[in-house]
Structure formats: C-alpha cells, structure tokens
C-alpha cells in the first residue's frame, strides 16, 4: 500500500524485502496469519519535532527533527542519526526499516530505529554545530534511554556531534549512561567503533571472496564516499594488501591508481574538512573528477577499472548503468558500506551476473554490532581492549555471511545473499513478534 509520494526510498526498501519473502510465506504461511507484513512495515512510533537554534550572526534558524522507533521485538531501538539537507521523514523511515533486519542479522539484542534532521552541517562553525545539537537533544532526550532507544552517528553525525548531543542529554537528565554510541574514547566510547562499519564491510567482502576461493590481497578496489565508512574501508583494504584507488564526496571523485594516501585523506576529511580536490596539491598525479563532469546516467567512481567495489557514500549512488559498467570491467565482488547504495535495477544486474554481492543490511552491520558492544561495555562499566572488539567484529561478520549464505541455499538460490539476508533477518524478528503476542 503506497500512501505517500514522499516515501519513495521507504517503498524501495520495503518492496525489496517483501519480494524476497515470497518463498518464505509459501513455506510458512503462519507469518501471514499473524499479520506480520502489515505490522512490520508500520513503525511502532514516529516522532517529528521542531529544532530552533541561532547561527553565529544571532539569526534564528529552524530545522525538522525526526526519530523513528520502528521495531523493538529484539531489543531497544538502535540506529543512527543523519544530519543532511536531503533528509525527509521518508529517508528516516527507509533507514529505520533496513535497520530492523540488519540488527537482527547481528544476532545481538537490538531493535530497529533511526533519526536525524534536514540540518546541513557543511560550513557551520563548531559553535553553530553545538547549538544545533543541543536544540536537537532538548526534544530527543524525552524519547531515548539506555534500555529504550540508543542512537548513534550516520551521515553528518560523527564524534563531535555525538559529544555535543551527549553533553546536552546529561545536562537535561542528570544521568551519565550509555544513551548514545560512537562516544569519544575518553568518556565511554568503545575502541574499534569508529572503524567498525568500514572494517566490517571489508571483512564481509573477504568472507564472500573466500567462499569463491579468492582473497582481497592484490585486488584493485573502488571505494565511494570519503566519510567515516569510506575512510576505514580504505584503511582495512591497505592493511590486507588490497589497493583502494578511489574515494568521492558530494563535490567530486578522486582517482589515485597507486593507492589512496590514507594519512592525507584523513587530514583533509577528519581535520580540515575540505574538498577532495585539495589532495592534488601534494599528489598532482592523482585525478580529480568534479561532479559536474559525471556521466548523466551514473557516478564517475563506478566507471573506473577495478576488481572489487565498496559503495560507502549514500543511497542510490550506484545506478543500473554503473552496475553494467562495473560488470563489463570485470568487477566480481561488491560489498556495500552504505545503506541501499545500489538502485533496485543495479541489484538485479548483480544478482543476474551471479557476482559476489553483499547488500548493505548484511555487509555494513559491523557498525551497529560494535555499537551494541559499546552498550555492553557501558552497562558493565568496562572498557574492552581493541583486539577483543575486533575479534568479535570479525566473528559477527563471518556469522552474518554464513547465515545469509545458508538461508539463500535453503531457499534454492545459494549465491543470492539479498534473499538470504532478508529471509534470515525477517524470520528472527517475526518469530519474536509472534511470541510476544499482538502488540
Ligand atoms: P559521513 O557523513 O561520515 O560520510 C558520508 C560521505 O558520503 C561523505 O564523503 C559525503 O560527502 C558523501 N555523501 C553524502 N551524501 C552524498 C550525496 N548525496 N552525494 C554524494 N556524496 C554524498 O557518513 P558515513 O560514512 O557515516 O555514512 C556513509 C553511509 O554509510 C551512509 O549510507 C550511512 O547510512 C551508512 N552507514 C554508516 C554507518 C556508520 O557507522 N557511520 C553504519 C552503517 C551504515 P560530503 O562530505 O561532501 O557530503
């Protein structure tokens, strides 16, 4: 039932999941009898609120704030906050819906939620970011808590924003508790959390390649994005002897065929917060393609030559024409660090070609899994060493891959990890909903 033209991304995500569930419903019609489809596509609660703050010139600004508490069958709502001008209620709903199944796949006790704002952090001073975050939390604090709803970061929300949000939560409630994840290591964060989504996407690619008797070593890798997920994807690829040759931001794409200089990239993106174009000041041999020169039917990064692709920027950044080019250039593995980066038609291409394709809800689940490890450390007042967190992350990613592959095989399509991820994630949530009664 499509009831709102503003929810196109949500319908795209829901249609993909429901299409995959057909064979499950044929075998197990009791899910239909329990009304699970109607219940699972409807959020338990959606909160929309006004966020008023003042800019550095003293001018009053107003943004929209959102939190979707989608499904709590498996645990407290868990999912990030996105601050980006493109954010609508439909964006947050799509992300919250995906989060339900992703969180289920981790095997950890976390339900699905997501939130954010149409606030644009670009070009804002630290003072403006702080005032916005404080205003955002002035409403959000009523709806969250360490055993009810635990937000984290996403696009536009990193360690700086989580710090300001946490400070305001503490000021308003007087409580020092694990209500946000992605916190600084100084005050309750987990070692390995900032790296977890990118590292996890690389571990997932390794699992997919291993199943085909290959490894990442020596492979040329195309990465999009230049934020949290992309940076740590590139870092892990370097560590494993692969050659990550690209990254991108909203303004353009960088191609360095000798391998991206990670230290410089971190300096540009984490410290200076400038355009990728600045990379060429010290590396003139690298190529920079501004977004204005992209092909009309896709993204420049997917027109480069490589063996493995890691879309790590945003939704629908990889089109059918991009998929066709990637396949034509011999890419055999795609591991999605971003949420729903490939359009539905691009996914169909990958599945038809039977390449190793890891959908975001499986391949990028390492971030939320490590957020749950942060919650576990907070509630037991401990801090685990990095080795322990990384070992758990690796095991969780291997387990997600195994579940997806086994479920895909159970339903007669062994290479289709989209089918496997959707059915395996759905079954866990639906079984819990049935056991908990009609609520
Ligand atoms: P960041 O804000 O750190 O980085 C996002 C990157 O993508 C930036 O380089 C940004 O460029 C680029 N980007 C964002 N929107 C667009 C756009 N519309 N067009 C082109 N480029 C764009 O976010 P993250 O790295 O945290 O998130 C990236 C993806 O990974 C998202 O899909 C997110 O939902 C997903 N994800 C993140 C997790 C996490 O732990 N952080 C966990 C699981 C999934 P610019 O700076 O120029 O805007």
From TrEMBL:
Site residues, Important for catalysis: 154
GO molecular function, one term: nucleotide binding
Pfam families, per database record: ELFV_dehydrog, ELFV_dehydrog_N
UniProt keywords, alphabetically: NAD, Nucleotide-binding, Oxidoreductase
Active-site residue numbers: 114
Catalytic activity reported: L-glutamate + NADP(+) + H2O = 2-oxoglutarate + NH4(+) + NADPH + H(+)
GO CC list: cytosol
Binding annotation for substrate: 78, 99, 102, 153, 371
Residues that bind NAD(+): 197, 228
PROSITE patterns: GLFV_DEHYDROGENASE
Residues of the Glutamate/phenylalanine/leucine/valine/L-tryptophan dehydrogenase C-terminal domain: 190-437
Function: Catalyzes the reversible oxidative deamination of glutamate to alpha-ketoglutarate and ammonia.
Subunit structure: Homohexamer.
Similarity section: Belongs to the Glu/Leu/Phe/Val dehydrogenases family.
Protein name, as recorded: Glutamate dehydrogenase
Top-level taxonomy: Bacteria, Pseudomonadati, Pseudomonadota, Gammaproteobacteria, Oceanospirillales
């Amino acid at each position: 039932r499509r009831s709102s033209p503003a929810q196109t991304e949500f319908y795209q995500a829901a249609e993909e999941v429901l299409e995959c569930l057909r064979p499950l419903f044929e075998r197990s019609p009791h899910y239909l009898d329990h009304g699970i489809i109607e219940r699972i596509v409807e959020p338990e609660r959606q909160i929309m609120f006004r966020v008023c703050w003042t800019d550095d010139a003293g001018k009053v600004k107003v943004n929209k704030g959102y939190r979707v508490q989608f499904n709590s069958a498996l645990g407290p709502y868990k999912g990030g906050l996105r601050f980006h001008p493109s954010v609508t209620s439909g964006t947050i709903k799509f992300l919250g819906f995906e989060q339900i199944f992703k969180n289920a796949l981790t095997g950890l006790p976390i339900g699905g939620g997501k939130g954010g704002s149409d606030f644009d952090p670009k070009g804002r001073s630290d003072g403006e970011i702080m005032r916005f975050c404080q205003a955002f939390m002035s409403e959000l604090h009523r709806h969250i808590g360490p055993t009810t709803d635990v937000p984290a970061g996403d696009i536009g929300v990193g360690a700086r924003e989580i710090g300001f949000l946490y400070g305001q939560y503490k000021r308003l409630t007087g409580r020092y508790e694990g209500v946000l994840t992605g916190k600084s290591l100084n005050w309750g964060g987990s070692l390995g959390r900032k790296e977890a989504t990118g590292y996890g996407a690389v571990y997932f690619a390794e699992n997919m390649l291993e199943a085909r008797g290959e490894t990442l070593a020596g492979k040329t890798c195309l990465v999009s994005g230049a934020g949290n997920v992309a940076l740590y994807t590139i870092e892990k690829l370097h560590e494993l002897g692969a050659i990550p040759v690209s990254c991108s931001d909203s303004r353009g794409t960088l191609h360095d065929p000798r391998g991206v200089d990670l230290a410089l990239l971190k300096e540009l993106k984490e410290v200076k917060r400038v355009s990728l174009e600045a990379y060429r000041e010290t590396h003139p041999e690298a190529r920079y393609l501004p977004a204005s020169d992209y092909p009309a039917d896709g993204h420049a990064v997917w027109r480069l030559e490589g063996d493995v692709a890691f879309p790590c920027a945003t939704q629908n950044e990889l089109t059918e024409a991009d998929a066709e080019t990637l396949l034509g250039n011999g890419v055999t593995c795609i591991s999605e660090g971003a949420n729903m980066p490939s359009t539905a038609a691009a996914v169909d291409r990958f599945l038809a070609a039977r390449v190793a394709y890891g959908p975001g809800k499986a391949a990028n689940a390492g971030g939320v899994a490590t957020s749950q490890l942060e919650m576990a450390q907070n509630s037991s007042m401990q801090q685990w060493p990095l080795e322990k967190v990384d070992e758990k992350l690796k095991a969780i990613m291997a387990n997600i891959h195994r579940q997806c592959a086994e479920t895909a095989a159970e339903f007669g399509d062994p290479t289709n990890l989209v089918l496997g991820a959707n059915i395996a994630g759905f079954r866990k949530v639906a079984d819990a909903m049935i056991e908990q009664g009609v609520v």
